[in-house]
């Protein structure tokens, strides 16, 4: 019996764009590799995926993605080591979370073979697009949206699953400044905050634009009840170091269960860094910033990796974080990227060779 990977039809591009790319000067997610994977869901079944040249796709104007926003995505990276071997990081966790998002948005789940074999076949073909430059990787964007037609406000009967690849550098350039939000909310109890649904991001753009006008890169979301607790940022989970303890909020209906976040908690345990997973009040963070016990604040995510926060704003005042010599952020970042790029042992079994 043929495996799914063997059934994938590959239509290669006649004009590779790779020579036009400066791999030493990559921004995040703005250029795309030569090929993409496309898989259609119709009549209750996933069809065999196809790999084709990267390019526009055609959709009916009544496709439900345009009207009702059924759309989910994942964010992953492929890393190349010094021997040109290619590695993914905890990819099965992305697959699992993709299906959690799909269920919440009333979309069909994607079987593991379609996700994993599709990914491995595409990356195998696009290996030359994985940067070797330090701090860069091939960002992987699996996504699914409703392609089925009709204005009836109900789940579509057809979907498309795609995987696109973008050789990428750092998500942030320069020092990161965030604003603790106390008017708008990203998500609510019983809502879709835990899903990687496109609409969660669309809803953040306006408050984030307002924050950007004041010079902030991201908003730190607080709970929708009283804006009393720190939850997460627009594209990353948040950690604060109070004294010697690293603290992060528990995941919930409202917070994405980040793979980087849980990896940091596991690495910290091995490194004897004391951690607490508990609600963090804005008040205690502001107080700690004032009395000097707030040592660090950083974001954690696939795109952001571990991004130290230099300044946070709250109620019209900016609070600067100290620049520490041997910060938890730099220690943990080294540990995690050394595993990802196969530069160190992986005692957790997270690395996945392809
Ligand atoms: N929170 C949000 C809202 C995100 O978009 C991301 C990015 O994926 C994260 C957290 C971090 O998740 P992960 O570490 O799985 O990439
Ligand atoms: C990721 O880190 O992979 C994300 O999905 C964040 C994204 C919004 C850029």
TrEMBL record:
<dbReference type="InterPro" id="IPR043132">
    <property type="entry name" value="BCAT-like_C"/>
</dbReference>
<comment type="pathway">
    <text>Amino-acid biosynthesis; L-isoleucine biosynthesis; L-isoleucine from 2-oxobutanoate: step 4/4.</text>
</comment>
<dbReference type="InterPro" id="IPR043131">
    <property type="entry name" value="BCAT-like_N"/>
</dbReference>
<keyword id="KW-0032">Aminotransferase</keyword>
<keyword id="KW-0028">Amino-acid biosynthesis</keyword>
<dbReference type="InterPro" id="IPR005786">
    <property type="entry name" value="B_amino_transII"/>
</dbReference>
<keyword id="KW-0100">Branched-chain amino acid biosynthesis</keyword>
<comment type="similarity">
    <text>Belongs to the class-IV pyridoxal-phosphate-dependent aminotransferase family.</text>
</comment>
<keyword id="KW-0663">Pyridoxal phosphate</keyword>
<keyword id="KW-0808">Transferase</keyword>
<dbReference type="GO" id="GO:0004084">
    <property type="term" value="F:branched-chain-amino-acid transaminase activity"/>
</dbReference>
<dbReference type="InterPro" id="IPR001544">
    <property type="entry name" value="Aminotrans_IV"/>
</dbReference>
<dbReference type="InterPro" id="IPR036038">
    <property type="entry name" value="Aminotransferase-like"/>
</dbReference>
<comment type="function">
    <text>Acts on leucine, isoleucine and valine.</text>
</comment>
<dbReference type="InterPro" id="IPR033939">
    <property type="entry name" value="BCAT_family"/>
</dbReference>
<dbReference type="InterPro" id="IPR018300">
    <property type="entry name" value="Aminotrans_IV_CS"/>
</dbReference>
<dbReference type="Pfam" id="PF01063">
    <property type="entry name" value="Aminotran_4"/>
</dbReference>
<protein>
    <recommendedName>
        <fullName>Branched-chain-amino-acid aminotransferase</fullName>
        <ecNumber>2.6.1.42</ecNumber>
    </recommendedName>
</protein>
<comment type="pathway">
    <text>Amino-acid biosynthesis; L-valine biosynthesis; L-valine from pyruvate: step 4/4.</text>
</comment>
């Amino acid at each position: 019996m043929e495996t799914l990977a063997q059934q994938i039809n590959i239509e290669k591009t006649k004009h590779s764009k790779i020579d036009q790319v400066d791999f030493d000067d990559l921004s995040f997610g703005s250029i795309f590799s030569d090929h993409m994977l496309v898989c259609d869901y119709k009549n209750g079944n996933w069809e065999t995926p196809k790999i084709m040249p990267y390019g526009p796709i055609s959709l009916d104007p009544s496709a439900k993605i345009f009207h009702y926003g059924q759309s989910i995505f994942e964010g992953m990276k492929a890393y190349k080591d010094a021997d040109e071997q290619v590695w993914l990081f905890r990819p099965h966790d992305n697959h699992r979370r993709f299906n959690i998002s799909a269920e919440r948005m009333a979309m069909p789940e994607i079987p593991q073979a379609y996700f994993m074999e599709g990914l491995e076949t595409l990356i195998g073909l696009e290996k030359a697009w994985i940067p070797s430059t330090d701090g860069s990787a091939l960002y992987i964007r699996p996504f699914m949206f409703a392609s089925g037609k009709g204005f009836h406000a109900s789940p579509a009967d057809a979907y498309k699953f795609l995987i696109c690849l973008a050789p990428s550098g750092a998500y942030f350039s320069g020092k990161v400044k965030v604003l603790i939000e106390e008017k708008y909310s990203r998500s609510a109890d019983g809502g879709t905050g835990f899903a990687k649904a496109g609409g969660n991001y669309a809803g953040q753009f306006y408050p984030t634009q307002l924050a950007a006008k004041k010079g902030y890169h991201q908003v730190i979301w607080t709970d929708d009840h009283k804006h009393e607790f720190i939850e997460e940022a627009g594209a990353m989970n948040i950690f604060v170091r109070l004294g010697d303890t690293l603290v992060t909020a528990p995941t919930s209906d409202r917070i994405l269960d980040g793979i980087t976040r849980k990896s940091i908690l596991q690495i910290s345990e091995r490194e004897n860094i004391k951690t607490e997973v508990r609600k963090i009040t804005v008040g205690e963070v502001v107080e700690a910033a004032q009395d000097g016990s707030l040592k660090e604040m950083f974001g954690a995510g696939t795109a952001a990796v571990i991004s130290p926060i230099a300044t946070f704003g709250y109620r019209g005042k900016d609070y600067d974080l100290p620049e520490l010599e041997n910060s938890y952020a730099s220690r943990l970042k080294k540990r995690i990227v050394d595993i990802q790029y196969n530069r160190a042992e992986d005692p957790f079994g997270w690395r996945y060779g392809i």
